[in-house]
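Researcher: Hi, I'm a grad student and pretty new to this. My advisor asked me to get structures for two proteins we've been looking at. I'm not sure of the right format, so I'll just paste the first sequence and hope you can take it from there.
Model: That works fine. Here's the first sequence with its structure tokens right after it:
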Amino acid sequence: MAELNQYRQFIQSLLSRYAVDSGSKNSPETQLVFDTERDHYQVMHVGWRGDRWVHSCTVHLDIKEEKIWIQWNGTEDDLAQELVDLGVPKSSIVIGFHAPSMRKYTDYAAG
């Protein structure tokens, strides 16, 4: 259980850096969505950019079966490596957006 709580803290800390207020009323709001009961974590962008509605997910992480699943990473950051640098073993990280048949070719868990 202590390990899961640490994983939750790592994820929330990593994703919190994306919650930068642009200060512009013409920019979508960045929302951090942390469901610590069901272990779903997302960075969302919601709002108007000029006359265009924006609703998108930039990052989505889950904790399933005591592993961190990177479901989506729309950033240039290597979130998996950052988790490793924090002390999460590669065997506890799944790159969920890679096809299950391809995961065995990565340095991370297959699922």
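Researcher: Oh nice, that was easy. Here's the second one.
Model: And its structure:
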Amino acid sequence: MNTILLQKCQEFIDQIINFFAADEIRVIEEMETTLKEYTDGFILEMMSTYLENLDKAIEADKSGRRQKGIVIERKNDNREIFTVFGTMQFSRTYYYDKRQQEYTYLLDRVVGLERNERVTGTVAVNLVEHASKYSYAKSSHNITGGAISRQTVMNKVRLLDNLKIENSKEKKIVKVLHIDADEDHVAMQDGSNAVVPLISVYEGIRRIGGRGQCINPHHISSYGKEPEELWLEAANWIYSEYDVNFLERIYLHGDGAQWIKVGLDWLPKAKLVLDKYHLNKSILQATGGHPERRREIYAAIRIGDLKSFKRSVSELIKNTKSEKEQKKIKDFKKYIINNWQAIEIYSQENCGGSGTEGHVSHVLSSRLSSRPMGWSRKGLKAMTELRAYISSGGRVKLEHLKQTKKKAYNLSKAGTAKMQKMLKHTQEQFNNITILNRGKVIPMFRCLKGLQKGSFEF
């Protein structure tokens, strides 16, 4: 092993020196691309050499394998795996485990490689994080240069599990919390549309220039979960992150849908606020044929005058001839009356505005529905949870990619010591022992030189 490592290290050094020693001036971009190519290739060769020699150490550890009942089946089986440095190829030995009655590659188990895995864990994490923003195909292209199929990227996303943001070390003390609840409509592969809910918890809005920014937003989303599950998750986050004894009010902003109102049963000190986007949208749709009525309807809602609102809408219905339009106006009237308390609160409390549509656009729509695509149920569930997690400040880790791992194989102490000895001996070949580089022939020089060459001639 030491000879091979020395040779590869020397080849790498010569390659770098020859690059800079050429009869031309190297520009920065050329240095970056060429040296990265050289370095990545060198690291891949070193990793491959290390793995193959580790495999030989396992093979040579006959007593250790004998105790475990493991015998050699065949040698030199090739394997290829994509790493952050590129594609690595190496060979290893195939074994038969008599006790477990199964065939296995002990090298794979020693270094933590999954069976049939095509990418390392680090690459898998990079692929998943990239796929949260871009298509599976583009993620493969940007991270691996297209060496990995879009199917592999999709499979990695579907492995995600236990994506949870860690709570602060100490509970926060705030008087008011805001929650925006809305939904995105996503096209499925079977031609149907799926509703994906989103719950966003934040501490208010700060102004940065002319734009508003939510303070410490935490997003919760999933496909296929019941509303109670989502609101329980939101409640758990609030109770874990904030001291509810100091909390005075939670304003729940939404369009008044039934699944949103369920949240009032789970959240402490919560009041519903009909968000202005949906309120304005409903007014514009109802008065489409009579825009001159909008001013008085807006005025009645603004001051909280329910009688004036009913009177204005009744006049609107009376002056509308189309039955279809009349039904639309009646539905609008019913919608406003059913959510009157959630509208009236604007004139009673400083409940602030909301960003329901902005949250849905940023967290969900930008990846799920802004481009023509069809989702599977499994893929949609994984992606919505991933988007909510990353939008809340989370980072994907290897532990999130759940896999059924085989029990690791431990190389015996003798085998490990042999590997360490070879590596240490390799270091000595680089002339990094000062006394050997001074050129002065003294008894200690002869002794160390003999050890270095393995001749032991003193």
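Researcher: Is there anything I should tell my advisor about the second?
Model: You could mention this: The longest strand covers residues 70-83.
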